[in-house]
Design a protein that fits this description.
With about 40 residues, the protein is mostly beta strands. Helix content is about 0%, strand content about 65%. It has strands spanning about 5-10, 15-25, 30-35. The chain has a 3-stranded antiparallel sheet, with no helix packed on it. The radius of gyration is 11 Å and the shape is elongated.
């Protein structure tokens, strides 16, 4: 089941909220499949 989640990412000294899509998951692991990119 694909779900949308809100996550906070640290960018420098600030945090930004991102909406991501997840795929397969269990009790300890979540597969991020879309929308989480590294910012420079």
């Amino acid at each position: 089941m694909i779900r949308n989640w809100s996550v906070f990412c640290k960018v420098g000294n600030k945090s930004k909220i991102r909406i991501i899509k997840t795929g397969i998951q269990d009790d300890t692991n979540i597969e991020v499949i879309l929308d989480l990119k590294k910012e420079m």
